[in-house]
Amino acid sequence: MTKVRLAVLCAVFLCLQCVASADSTGSFDNQGGVLTAVQVDHSGTYQLTVTNSPLTSVSGVYGLNCGGSLGTTCSGGIGFKLPAVSLSAIDNVNGPPLVFLGSDFGSFTLKENGATVFTGYFTSATWTFTGNTSTNDYQWTLMGNITGTYKVGNMTETVNAALVQLTVSASSDPFTATGTKRIGISGGNTNLPGVVPESGTLVLFGTGLIGIVLAARRKYFSDIRA
Questions:
Q1: Among 175, 188, 170, 186, residue whose Cα is nearest residue 36
Q2: Taking each helix axis from N to C terminus, what angle separates 2-20 and 199-225, rounded to the nearest 10 degrees?
């Protein structure tokens, strides 16, 4: 019977390896929509806010993949808010990056296929001017780390240090005192690490375990009869 137990342990180990190999990072690309500097209660401070930037492709997430080479249309988008700062800090043309540091600040939401896939908050973010004023190219890049709850199907996970990158651009500076405070989103990407096994992997887990156990059982009783 010891041999049977050993075979079962080996089967579990091998199948767990199969599931581990299904670990993936969900990649969510977005494009379009508007980033707006919204004044907070007439306080003179502004929040960088995105209501919805549509997703153009999703990969690495079983059941949600869309766009790209698949040729299907994604239905979701991202939205977020950052902490309120002065307008001059946002309008850092040719100046140093604006760095947000702290914990549990701002908010970030990602939706796809009619469901909220991720909801959380920024733990750090950097807003950098990356354009060229001499060619009327006003461009900024936002890079941030987020943490929160990632839900796909029946799986729920806490995700830490997920990465967000967003690029916005315009032909004039929107963040001056008389500017529109609005800028178009050229593109972005959100990477959410997590375990999202495909259904085929789970089937292999079950059938592989049963097959190995039955084979070990037959071998054990044939040895007894011999």
A1: 175
A2: 170
